[in-house]
Structures are given as structure tokens and as C-alpha cells.
Design brief:
316 residues; alpha/beta; Cobalt-precorrin-4 Transmethylase, domain 1; Rossmann fold; four-stranded parallel beta sheet; 11 helices; 12 strands; flat
């Protein structure tokens, strides 16, 4: 294959979003402040490369709070946690830092606002995703109904059709979600919508970049984890937007180079929890096999940053 020309269309924006950046920084700062080990409930973000690096620095990843000793600090992941988790940490007098993305926290606040107003709440999202578990865990059992598909939206029967509200997971397909919302709004014209769309700016921007460049791509690769909702949505968006083939890969080492038979134009992006060195590693692997030309496709500039929690700025 050496010498064969390959155009790589490289999406921008791609990779880390502000919420992921902040969550990783929180673990690093916690290790700097309290020393190792610092416990982290659930993967801080959905990327094994990030998790492995932080483990090397002294972070210990666990699934539940009862796996953490009470005398060591614990960080809650960027996806958010049910209210019972910080309540239990306080009961055990643990030091904890909440790394929930502020845009996920915004959805939590919206859900609580609707609940206080007596509305029946619909959450558009994927069952079992940590963000969905965290959002549903903000309210009593049964207060939120999960809707995953258009069929779910058609089948949903509220107690009072005039008193319904919806919120969404932040990492969904913009187009799929719009279709579900359209069904809900058609069925329940008075349904309360978010003040501002719940799907986060980074998810939207990464999907828009893929849409702008997928047409004409023989193959589209998205770097991200199987557990990453926003990364999996990018694979779907690329296919729908005109890529002949689209695949999710964790890194260059997961690429099957047989996929490149007949490929002249490759689309490349990374999900919001994938580090840039994985993108550059895949480009380098292509360069070792092809005569490549990298063509950046920039559809937005991101300048969003989020402050760290006050507990990390406070004196020990």
C-alpha cells in the first residue's frame, strides 16, 4: 500500500470537550492536593487510555462508593451521579469532589425544577448509561420516564397530557433526538422544553463537523470507546451523511488495514473523551502505509472552559 495516495479529512472540532478536560484536571489536582490514592467512582470519562494514565498517577477506579475507604478522597465522574451517592459520602464523612460536567448538572436542575412544578418528566436517553442513571437518580423513583426511541415516544401515556416536560441526555444524536422531540411535541403541544437544548455544544459541534465532511469519504473512522455514547453517535452520523463505511476504533492498534482496500478518502474524528495523541497516532500509522495529505475541515471554534470545584482551590 506504500505510495498509494490517501486524503485524510480531519474534523475540527474533535476530541476533548470542556467537561472532559475539567473532569481529568479534577483527578490530577486531587492527586496533587491529597496524594495517592484518590478513588474515582466509575470511569472519570469513557476512555481507557485516559483511565490508564490516571491509574499510573495513583487514581483507583471503582464502581461503587462502598469500595472506597472512608479516609481517602473520592471523585465522582463527569457523567453525574444519583443524589444518593453524595448523600452517602456525607454520611460516611468522606472528602469528595464532584466532577459532573456543568452541562449535565444543568439537566439535573431542569429535572428538579419540573418536578417541583408538578410536571411529569420524560428523559430522552439510553438505558443504563451512567448519565441517564445519574439524571433519573436526582428524583424519586417513578418521577422520570425514560424514552429511547420514536416508538417509545408514541407509546408514552402521561397521567395528564397538559402537564408534561422533557429533558435529554447530553450526548445523543442531534437528528434522532429532534425526531423524538417532534413526536412528543405533536402529541403533547403544551410539553415543556428545555430553555436551551440539553444536547451539549460539543456533541452538536462534533456531529456538525462530521456531517460537513462525510460525503465522499470511502471510510470514516471515529476514535473513541465502545462505552462512549457521543463517539458511537458520530459513527452513525457519518454513515447517514454519506460515508461509504464508518467505524469506531479505540486507537490505531485497533484498525484493520483491510478496511482500506480501495479507500482514497478517509474521514477522521474523535469523540469528546478521546485524547488528541490517539488521533495523531492514527495519522502516523496511515503515514507509514500511504502517501497522505491531511485536509482539516473546521466547522466551529470552541472557547468554552469550566472552573474547577472550590474544594480544590481551598487550602488543605
Amino acid at each position: 500500500m506504500q505510495g498509494r495516495k490517501l486524503e485524510i479529512r480531519l474534523a475540527a472540532p474533535r476530541g476533548f470537550c470542556a467537561g472532559v478536560d475539567r473532569a481529568i484536571q479534577i483527578v490530577e489536582e486531587a492527586l496533587g492536593k491529597w496524594g495517592a490514592p484518590v478513588y474515582v467512582r466509575h470511569e472519570i470519562v469513557h476512555n481507557q487510555h485516559v483511565v490508564s494514565r490516571l491509574e499510573g498517577m495513583g487514581a483507583v477506579f471503582v464502581e461503587e462508593l462502598d469500595e472506597c475507604p472512608p479516609d481517602r478522597p473520592v471523585v465522582f465522574s463527569a457523567h453525574g451521579v444519583p443524589k444518593a451517592v453524595p448523600a452517602e459520602a456525607e454520611r460516611r464523612e468522606m472528602v469528595y469532589v464532584d466532577a459532573t460536567c456543568p452541562l449535565v448538572s444543568k439537566v439535573h436542575v431542569e429535572a428538579e425544577r419540573h418536578h417541583k412544578a408538578g410536571r411529569e418528566i420524560v428523559l430522552i436517553g439510553h438505558a443504563g448509561h451512567p448519565e441517564v442513571i445519574g439524571t433519573m437518580g436526582q428524583l424519586p423513583d417513578g418521577a422520570i420516564t425514560l424514552i429511547e426511541t420514536e416508538d417509545d415516544a408514541r407509546a408514552f401515556e402521561p397521567k395528564n397530557a397538559a402537564n408534561v416536560a422533557f429533558v435529554t441526555q447530553t450526548t445523543l444524536s442531534v437528528d434522532d433526538t429532534a425526531d423524538i422531540v417532534a413526536i412528543l411535541q405533536d402529541r403533547f403541544p403544551d410539553i415543556s422544553a428545555p430553555h436551551k437544548e440539553d444536547i451539549c455544544y460539543a456533541t452538536t459541534n462534533r456531529q456538525e463537523a462530521v456531517k460537513a465532511m462525510a460525503e465522499g469519504c470511502d471510510l470514516f473512522l471515529v476514535i473513541g470507546a465502545e462505552t462512549s455514547s457521543n463517539s458511537k453517535r458520530l459513527v452513525e452520523v457519518a454513515k447517514r451523511a454519506g460515508a461509504k463505511d464508518s467505524r469506531l476504533v479505540a486507537s490505531a492498534s485497533n484498525v484493520d488495514w483491510d478496511w482500506f482496500q480501495g479507500v482514497e478518502t478517509l474521514g477522521l474524528t474523535a469523540g469528546a473523551s478521546a485524547p488528541e495523541d490517539l488521533v495523531q497516532g492514527l495519522i502516523a500509522a496511515c503515514r507509514a502505509r500511504f502517501d497522505i495529505e491531511v485536509v482539516p475541515v473546521t466547522t466551529a471554534r470552541e472557547t468554552v472552559t469550566f472552573k474547577l470545584p472550590r474544594v480544590l482551590a481551598a487550602e488543605v
